[in-house]
Design the sequence.
């Protein structure tokens, strides 16, 4: 069977590898002209790492990951440590260590494993035609390709999603999470936090955090609640918002190179919906369940999609259309639930209700981390990669 995948991100390439490993002829198209991933890094919890293990790249992913041994929260203004605890119980309960990784490193790994000779960059999808026997993709340069199946992993503003949901469906609503995220990579600096710890400074509905990744680097991010549509100088905005914060946060801002690794992203998500397929076409990843980064499950959920798609293709034999419907049926509820969990977490931590956020701050002081770990494990427990076994 020939499969066209639209999108060479984490979801698209992992789906491509899964289908290749089943013996199918897969080609990936992406509108980007070079590999420049959006966002500096991502957190791979055990559900995402297990999919990557299943795809045969586990050792390489482990080499890209940072030593995420502990988690700590600090008061953003004073720098006082509110709590610190081991993350080992998550590995013990889920059977796999988590890894923060640079997005570009992971994407390069997946593209190379899939085969760069089978990836066509600079190709913008502008048309899809399904005649009931094959599906044809048309690109902006006028070229076409025909296959038995088309998978749209083309992001939050997906062309494929518009085709799948069709004119008769209600429009897919985007929801602003109420904050802007600033992220990038910096060299490790002990003034900011230890190199084996996820360190987060919190106050005023804002956050500043670092996670260790390979290469003696920190993945960092800041969150600032603000109206959508405002634009400005990202580094100047960070200085203004955090000038009165703790020395560790100020050291982080000083480490950022203006022309280096600094992304400014308004955070939106998409209301959960259940129309993921149309004939021989299906969507995957952000195209199907764009979510906020507040529970660290965006990339993991896309990897779960790739796993579920691979299992459906390997086991269902009625038709391509039936296979895709079964893939979607296995994913819609869980993926939508993660979107809503992340949305609720964003509201709690970013001051949507100041008293709720203040209560969260008070709850961090002196905690042993059991509740936080329970929440992280709860996001993992329903993963299809666990084959219904949940966690221990």
Sequence:
């Amino acid at each position: 069977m020939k499969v066209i995948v639209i999108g060479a991100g984490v979801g698209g390439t992992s789906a491509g590898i899964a289908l290749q490993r089943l013996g199918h002829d897969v080609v990936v198209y992406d509108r980007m002209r070079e590999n420049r991933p959006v966002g500096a890094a991502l957190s791979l919890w055990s559900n995402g790492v297990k999919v990557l293990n299943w795809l045969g790249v586990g050792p390489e992913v482990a080499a890209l990951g940072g030593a995420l041994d502990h988690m700590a929260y600090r008061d953003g203004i004073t720098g006082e440590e509110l709590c610190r605890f081991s993350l080992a119980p998550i590995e013990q309960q889920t059977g796999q260590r988590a890894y923060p990784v640079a997005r570009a490193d992971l994407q390069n790994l997946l593209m190379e494993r899939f085969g760069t000779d089978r990836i066509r960059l600079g190709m913008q999808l502008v048309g899809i035609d399904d005649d009931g026997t094959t599906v044809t993709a048309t690109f902006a340069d006028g070229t076409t390709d025909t296959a038995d199946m088309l998978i749209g992993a083309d992001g939050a503003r997906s062309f494929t999603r518009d085709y799948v949901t069709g004119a008769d469906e209600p429009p897919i609503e985007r929801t602003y999470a109420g904050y802007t995220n600033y992220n990038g990579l910096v060299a490790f600096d002990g003034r900011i936090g230890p190199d084996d710890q996820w360190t987060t400074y919190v106050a005023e509905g804002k956050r500043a955090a670092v996670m260790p990744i390979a290469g003696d680097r920190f993945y960092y991010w800041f969150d600032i609640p603000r109206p959508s549509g405002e634009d400005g100088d990202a580094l100047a905005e960070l200085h203004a918002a955090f000038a009165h914060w703790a020395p560790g946060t100020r050291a982080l801002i000083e480490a950022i190179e203006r022309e280096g690794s600094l992304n400014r992203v308004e955070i939106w998500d998409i209301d959960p919906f259940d129309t993921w397929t149309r004939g021989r076409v299906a969507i995957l990843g952000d195209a199907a369940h764009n979510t906020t980064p507040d529970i660290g499950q965006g990339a993991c959920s896309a990897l779960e999609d790739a796993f579920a798609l691979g299992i459906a293709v390997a086991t269902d034999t009625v038709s391509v259309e039936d296979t895709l419907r079964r893939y979607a049926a296995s994913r819609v509820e869980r993926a939508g639930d993660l979107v809503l969990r992340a949305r609720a977490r964003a509201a709690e931590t970013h001051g949507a209700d100041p008293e709720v956020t203040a209560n969260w701050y008070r709850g961090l002081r002196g905690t042993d981390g059991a509740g936080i770990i329970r929440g992280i494990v709860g996001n993992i427990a329903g993963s299809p990669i666990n084959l219904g076994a949940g966690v221990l």
